[in-house]
Design goal:
- The complex is a heterodimer.
- Chain A is mainly beta.
- Helix content of chain A is about 15%, strand content about 40%.
- Chain B is of the alpha+beta class.
- In chain B, about 40% of the residues lie in helices and about 25% in strands.
- In chain B, the strands form seven sheets. Chain B has a six-stranded mixed β-sheet. Chain B has a six-stranded mixed β-sheet with strand order 26-30-31-29-28-27. Chain B has a five-stranded antiparallel β-sheet with strand order 4-1-3-2-5, with helices on both faces.
- Classes of the chains: A mainly beta, B alpha+beta.
- At the A-B interface, strand 4 and strand 5 of A face helix 16, strand 22 and strand 23 of B.
Chain lengths: ~160, ~950
C-alpha cells in the first residue's frame, strides 16, 4: 500500500508518493531566472536552501488554471533527504534528484491510499504530452489519478 | 585529511622531536572513535579507516621514495625509516584484518626497504622504480580490498624478489650507511621485518637501563609504535568487565609488552578510585587498532615517545622522579587526571617497574646524543604530543553545516533589522543582539575554516608526475615543493589538480631540456621545478617555476600563425607578453597533445579558464634560456566572495568584485560623447580606449538579439546616467551596462541548480541579506553570450576588442572611415590602437611637417593625400579624427603617429573579399565594395611606417 499526495494541475488529478514529498508550501516568493527552461518558475529561498520551482503545468504540457487561488508548491525530497527515508522503509524504487525541487500546482487534494495491485499502467488513450511523465494510473472513486514518474520529470536533459 | 595524519603516532618522528617535512609538526592526529571488543558492526568502520589510512600512508611515502632516489646512498635514515614504517603499518593492518595478499606484498616491499635501511642494498632508480610500482600495486589492492587477493602483482613481485635475492651488497656501502641506521639490530636476519606481528612475551628479568633502551630501539627499528595503555581499574575495567590479566594477554597477542605497572602498585595511597594500571607496549598497530584489539576505549591508549619512555626509565631506576614530569607522563595525566594525586616517585620506589626484555644488545645508542637537544622542545610540546585531535567528517555534512550557518547569518540580519527600533528603547537588547551578531560571525568563519586544506597534499603528487614524465622523455627532473602548509578551500584544491598537473607536465615536456642540451648550456643536468605556495595580499599565490629553456618565441608565433590566431605581420611586432598570451589563447593547444599521454587533452587556455573560474588569475613569465614561471593567484575560499549587487533588466544580480576592474559612471551629458554606437554595438570611450559595451538585458533576454531591440538599446543609451562595470575576462576587458548600483555584500556562493546548468551567464546563485535569491553573473559567460570577439592576444591597454555580434569566425573586424568626402577606407581593427576626436585647432605644421598636440606632446600626423592619390580632409571640417595605428602589438604600444581622418563611419565585421585596388600606394592592400561604395583596404601600420621612413629619408 502506498500513500500519495494528490493535487491538481488544471483540472487533472495527479499524485506523487508521499515519501517523495518533503513539505507543501503556499506559493513561495521566487526569483525568476532569465534564460532558464520555460518550466522553471524561478528560485526560491526555503529556509536557506535554494529550491528550483517548476511550473508543473508547463513541464507536463498541461494547461494550468487561470485563477491562482489554490496555488501551492510541493517540495520534493532531495537525494540526501530521501536517503534517510530509504533506510527506514527499505524501498529502492524511489527516485529523486540531488537538487531541491518544488512543483507549483493548482491545488492540493487529499492524501490517497493506493493498494499495490490497483495501480494500472498508463492507458493507451492517454496520449498527451504528459504521458512521458507518468508511471501509472490509479482509479479513484470518480476519476483517474495520474501518478507522476519523477525519474522522467526530474531528468534535466 | 592530510597525508601527514599518522605522523604523530610515529615513534620515530617523536624521538626526532622536530618536523621532518613541510615544517608542520603539530599536524592533525587520528580520528578518535572507540570500539567495543567483539567487533561487530564496527568492523566495517575499522576497515574503512584502515583503507583511508593506508592510502594516506602510500600518498605520503611517494615523495619520500623520490627523495631517496634523489639522494641515493646519502639518504637520511629517517626518510627510509618513514617509508619503512608506512609500509609496515599497512602490513600490520592487513595482517590484523587478514588480507593475505596485501600483507604478503607489503612484506616483500618491507623486506626490500629493510635491505636499504641496513645498507645492504644501495638506492638505485631501478629499486625505486620497483618500490613505486609496488606502491601502485598496494593502492590497487586498497581500491577494492575484498578483491585484493585477486590483484595481479606477479610482475611487480618478481622484480622485488629479484632485488631481494641479489642485493648489490657492496660492503663499503654497508659500512658507511649503517652509520646512519640504527645499528642495534645488527645480529638479526632480514626476515625480522616479518616478526613484529608475532607476540613475544619475553621473560621478566632485572635488566639494565640499556637493555630497555635496546628493546625500545629494536621495536622502533622494526617500525613499531610505542604506546602506554593506561587503565583506570575502577572506572574502565569495571565498566568493560575486563581484568588486568585479560588486557595483558590481549596486549601480548598483538604487540610486545615492554613494561608494566600493575594497578596494585599505585594503591598505597588508599585512593581506590584513582588506581590505574599501565602497560608500555610496542606494536605495529595504530592506536585505533590497538584499542580495538584490546577492547579498551581509545582514550586509554596513549602514544608514547621513545624519549619519554626512556627518560622515565632513567628517572625511575636512577635518580628518582623529578618534579618536572617527563613528557609522556604529562600526556598521561591529561587523560587520567586522578593520577595527579599520586606521588609518582612512590610508585617507582615501591615496586619498580617490571622489566621485560628479550634482546641483549649493545648499549651504544647513536641517537642518545641527540636526546638532550631534542628533549627541551619536546617536553614543552608533549602535552599535545597527540597533536590537536581530529575527526573525519563527511564533506556532505560540512556543506550542510555551511548552509545552516549562512542561513543563520541571514536570520541574524533579519533579526537585527527587525529589532533595530526596539533595541534603542529597551536597554540590554542591544547587547544581546551584538552578542548574537558576533557569535554568528564566529560560527560562520569557524565552519568556513573546516573546509580549508593544506596544499601540500596536492603538491605531493606532482613529484611522481614530474619523475615519471621525465623518465619517459629521458630527462632528469627534480621537483621541489615549498609552502605545503598554505591552506585553501577544499573545492579550490580539488579544482586546481588538473591545471597544476598540466602546468607541471608542460614544464617537464616543453620547459626542461634533455641532459645533453643542459650540459651544452652548462646547466646542471638535473632540471629543477619548484612548486611554491604563499600568501600574498589576501590571496594565495602558487608558482610553478622551471629552469628550462624558456618559451620559444619563434615557435609559439609560428604555431599561432599556423592556427590563424595571429597574422604574420602582427607576429613580427608581438611583444614577449603577447607571445605568452598566445599560449593561453583559445585554440592554440594542438591536437597532437590531446592524443598524448593521459591527463592531457587540455591546453593552456583551458588551464586559464579553470583558474579564472575559481576567481583566480594566471600569469606567465619567461626568460629565454633561463626558465619559465607560471604564477597563479587564487582566493582563499570560494564559498564566500565579496561582490557588488547591481540592478539590471529589472532584477538584481551579484557581480564578483574580483572580476570588476573599475566602475564607470557616465553622466547623461557625456553619454553622447562617451558611449558610441557602431553597427548596433555600443562602445565606451575610456581614457582613449574603446571598450565594447554589453547590456545585461540584451544578454539575458534572448528576444533582444534581433535588430529591432538593438535600436531600443541604443536609444536608451542617450539621455540618462549610465553605470558601467568594467569587467575582466582573461586579458580582455569589456563594459557591462547596469541600471543601478546597490551595496557591496559578502555572498555565499551556491552552485547553479541542476536545471539551470548550462546558462553560462551565471556563475552560481546566492541568498542576499534580505533573504532573496539572486543570480551571480559570470563575466566570461556574458562576454561569450554577447558574442564579443576580442582581438587575439589583445592587451588590456588597447581597446581593440570592439564588439560585434558575429558568428562566423572567418569574418574580420574592421573600422570604416572616410578620409574625405570622396574616399572611404577600412582598416583591420586589430591594427588600430586608438580613435581620437580632435579639434582642428590642434593641428600644427612645423618645419614642413604636420603635428598634432596629443597628450601634451607633438605626434606626427599622416595625411592620406600626401602619400596616396586621393583627396584629403576638407579644410572646413572643424572636427576631425585621428586614427592611431598600433605599431607594436602589446601593452607597450605607444602612439608613433596619427592618420588624419575625416569621419569614423562604422565598425564592422566583414567577410573580406578584397580585389586589386584602383590605385597603388603605401599600405594599400586592395579594395572592396561596401554597400555599393568602393572602399580601400588600408594597412595603417604599413602606411605610417612608410611615412616615417620617407621623412627620415627626407631628413
Amino acid at each position: 500500500m502506498k500513500h500519495l499526495v494528490s493535487f491538481r494541475v488544471g483540472r487533472q488529478l495527479f499524485g506523487i508518493e508521499i515519501l517523495l514529498v518533503r513539505e507543501i508550501d503556499t506559493c513561495l516568493d521566487c526569483t525568476p531566472v532569465q534564460l532558464a527552461p520555460s518550466y522553471v518558475v524561478g528560485l526560491a529561498n526555503l529556509r536557506g536552501q535554494i529550491v528550483t520551482l517548476f511550473d508543473l503545468g508547463e513541464r507536463l504540457g498541461v494547461k494550468r488554471r487561470a485563477e491562482r487561488g489554490g496555488t501551492h508548491d510541493i517540495m520534493l525530497r532531495s537525494t540526501m533527504d530521501l536517503a534517510l527515508v530509504r533506510s527506514r522503509v527499505h524501498r529502492d524504487d524511489l527516485y529523486t534528484c540531488a537538487d531541491p525541487i518544488g512543483l507549483r500546482v493548482d491545488g492540493i487534494g487529499d492524501i490517497v491510499e493506493v493498494q499495490d495491485g490497483t495501480v494500472e499502467p498508463v492507458p493507451a488513450n492517454v496520449t498527451g504530452s504528459e504521458r512521458q511523465f507518468l508511471s501509472g494510473v490509479a482509479l479513484m472513486a470518480e476519476e483517474l489519478l495520474l501518478i507522476l514518474d519523477l525519474k522522467q520529470l526530474l531528468d534535466a536533459r | 585529511m592530510s597525508a601527514t595524519t599518522q605522523r604523530n603516532w610515529d615513534a620515530g618522528e617523536c624521538f626526532d622531536g622536530r618536523p621532518t617535512r613541510g615544517g608542520h609538526y603539530q599536524e592533525g592526529s587520528r580520528a578518535v572513535l572507540s570500539f567495543g571488543f567483539p567487533m561487530t558492526e564496527d568492523e566495517l568502520e575499522i576497515l574503512e579507516e584502515f583503507i583511508q589510512e593506508s592510502r594516506e600512508h602510500l600518498a605520503a611515502i611517494e615523495p619520500d621514495l623520490l627523495e631517496m632516489e634523489r639522494q641515493g646512498s646519502a639518504t637520511a635514515s629517517e626518510i627510509v625509516n618513514r617509508v619503512f614504517r608506512a609500509i609496515h603499518s599497512t602490513k600490520g593492518g592487513a595482517a590484523f584484518l587478514a588480507f593475505e595478499s596485501l600483507k604478503e606484498f607489503s612484506h616483500v616491499m618491507e623486506s626490500v626497504l629493510m635491505l636499504i635501511r641496513d645498507g645492504e642494498l644501495s638506492i638505485t632508480p631501478k629499486v625505486i622504480d620497483a618500490l613505486l610500482s609496488g606502491v601502485d600495486v598496494l593502492r590497487r589492492m586498497l581500491d577494492d580490498l575484498r578483491a585484493s587477493d585477486s590483484v595481479d602483482c606477479t610482475a611487480e613481485r618478481r622484480v622485488l624478489n629479484a632485488i631481494l635475492e641479489e642485493p648489490e651488497s657492496a660492503s663499503d656501502q654497508i659500512a658507511t650507511e649503517s652509520q646512519n641506521v640504527e645499528s642495534t639490530r645488527a645480529g638479526e636476519p632480514c626476515e625480522a621485518g616479518a616478526a613484529p606481528n608475532v607476540a613475544h612475551l619475553p621473560e621478566p628479568s632485572g635488566v639494565s637501563n640499556q637493555s630497555r633502551h635496546a628493546v625500545i630501539t629494536e621495536a622502533l627499528a622494526h617500525g613499531q609504535l610505542l604506546y602506554r595503555v593506561v587503565v583506570s581499574v575502577n572506572a574502565d575495567l569495571a565498566a568493560l568487565g575486563l581484568t588486568e590479566q585479560r588486557i595483558e594477554e590481549r596486549i601480548s597477542s598483538v604487540g610486545r609488552l615492554i613494561q608494566r605497572f600493575p594497578a596494585s602498585m599505585a594503591q598505597t595511597d588508599g585512593d581506590q578510585a584513582a588506581s590505574t594500571a599501565e602497560w608500555e607496549v610496542a606494536t605495529v598497530l595504530d592506536r585505533r587498532l590497538l584499542a580495538a584489539a584490546t577492547g579498551l576505549p581509545e582514550h586509554c591508549i596513549l602514544p608514547a615517545s621513545r624519549h619519554a619512555a626512556m627518560d622515565e626509565r632513567d628517572h625511575a631506576t636512577g635518580l628518582g622522579r623529578e618534579p618536572t614530569a617527563p613528557a609522556a607522563r604529562v600526556a598521561t595525566l591529561a587523560v587520567t587526571p586522578s593520577i595527579q594525586e599520586q606521588p609518582v616517585p612512590t610508585r617507582a620506589k615501591l615496586a619498580g617497574p617490571t622489566e621485560l626484555t628479550s634482546a641483549q644488545v649493545p648499549s651504544s645508542d647513536p641517537l642518545s646524543s641527540r636526546k638532550e637537544k631534542a628533549n627541551a622542545p619536546f617536553a614543552a610540546k608533549d602535552p599535545v604530543s597527540e597533536g590537536p585531535e581530529t575527526l573525519r567528517v563527511r564533506v556532505e555534512l560540512l556543506n550542510h553545516l555551511m548552509d545552516s550557518a549562512s542561513e543563520l547569518v541571514l536570520g541574524r540580519n533579519q533579526l537585527l533589522r527587525a529589532l533595530k527600533e526596539q533595541s534603542d528603547k529597551s536597554a540590554g537588547l542591544g547587547i544581546i543582539l551584538q552578542h548574537i551578531d558576533r557569535v554568528t560571525t564566529d560560527l560562520q568563519e569557524g565552519i568556513m575554516q573546516t573546509r580549508m586544506q593544506q596544499i601540500g597534499q596536492l603538491f605531493g603528487r606532482f613529484a611522481r608526475v614530474a619523475r615519471d614524465l621525465g623518465r619517459q622523455l629521458g630527462k632528469n627532473v627534480e621537483l621541489r615543493a615549498e609552502g605545503n602548509h598554505v591552506e585553501l578551500d577544499k573545492s579550490i584544491i580539488e579544482a586546481l589538480a588538473d591545471p597544476l598537473t598540466h602546468i607541471v607536465r608542460n614544464a617537464v615536456d616543453h620547459g626542461l631540456e634533455t641532459p645533453e642540451e643542459r650540459r651544452k648550456k652548462k646547466k646542471p643536468e638535473v632540471g629543477r621545478i619548484l612548486l611554491s605556495a604563499s600568501h600574498e595580499s589576501g590571496q594565495v599565490k602558487i608558482v610553478v617555476e622551471d629552469d628550462g629553456r624558456g618559451i620559444d618565441r619563434g615557435k609559439v608565433l609560428r604555431k599561432a600563425i599556423e592556427k590563424d590566431i595571429i597574422t604574420a605581420s602582427a607576429a613580427d611586432k608581438a611583444s614577449d607578453r603577447d607571445v605568452v598570451n598566445l599560449l593561453m589563447a583559445a585554440g592554440f593547444s594542438t591536437a597532437d597533445q590531446v592524443s598524448d599521454v593521459s591527463g592531457r587533452g587540455v591546453g593552456m587556455d583551458v588551464v586559464r579558464n579553470n583558474v579564472e573560474a575559481l576567481g583566480g588569475q594566471i600569469e606567465i613569465d619567461t626568460a629565454p634560456g633561463l626558465g619559465t614561471s607560471v604564477q597563479l593567484r587564487l582566493p582563499l575560499t570560494l564559498a564566500i566572495i565579496p561582490s557588488l549587487i547591481v540592478g539590471a533588466a529589472g532584477a538584481r544580480f551579484a557581480v564578483p568584485q574580483a572580476s570588476i576592474v573599475e566602475l564607470v559612471w557616465v553622466r547623461s551629458d557625456d553619454v553622447q560623447e562617451r558611449i558610441q554606437q557602431l553597427q548596433g554595438a555600443l562602445m565606451l570611450r575610456l581614457r582613449e580606449r574603446l571598450v565594447p559595451l554589453v547590456k545585461v538585458a540584451d544578454v539575458l533576454n534572448t528576444a533582444s538579439v534581433d535588430g529591432t531591440d538593438e535600436n531600443a538599446a541604443v536609444g536608451a543609451a542617450v539621455g540618462k546616467d549610465h553605470y558601467i562595470l568594467l569587467l575582466r575576462t582573461g586579458t580582455d576587458h569589456y563594459g557591462l551596462m547596469v541600471d543601478e548600483l546597490f551595496e557591496s555584500e559578502e555572498i555565499v556562493v551556491k552552485p547553479l541548480p541542476l536545471f539551470l546548468k548550462g546558462i553560462d551567464c551565471f556563475a552560481g546563485t546566492t541568498i542576499l541579506g534580505d533573504g532573496s535569491v539572486t543570480m551571480i553573473l559570470d563575466p566570461s559567460g556574458i562576454a561569450a553570450r554577447a558574442g564579443l570577439r576580442f582581438a587575439s592576444a589583445n592587451e588590456t591597454e588597447v581597446g581593440s576588442g570592439v564588439g560585434g555580434r558575429q558568428s562566423a569566425v572567418a569574418k574580420r573586424s574592421v573600422i570604416l572611415f572616410a578620409g574625405g568626402p570622396e574616399e572611404q577606407y577600412i582598416v583591420p581593427q586589430e591594427q588600430v590602437l586608438r580613435l581620437e576626436r580632435v579639434d582642428r585647432s590642434k593641428l600644427q605644421r612645423t618645419g614642413g611637417r604636420d603635428y598634432i598636440c596629443y597628450r601634451g606632446a607633438g605626434l606626427p600626423l599622416v595625411r592620406l593625400e600626401r602619400f596616396l592619390p586621393v583627396g584629403g580632409v576638407p579644410d572646413l571640417a572643424e572636427e576631425v579624427f585621428l586614427l592611431i595605428p598600433r605599431m607594436v602589438r602589446g601593452r607597450d604600444a605607444e602612439p608613433t603617429a596619427g592618420i588624419l581622418v575625416w569621419r569614423i563611419l562604422d565598425a564592422l565585421d566583414l567577410d573580406l573579399n578584397v580585389q586589386p585596388a584602383l590605385f597603388q600606394g603605401p599600405g594599400v592592400k586592395g579594395a572592396t565594395l561596401l554597400d555599393g561604395v568602393l572602399t580601400t583596404f588600408l594597412d595603417p601600420v604599413a602606411l605610417v611606417e612608410h611615412a616615417h621612413s620617407s621623412k627620415e629619408h627626407a631628413a
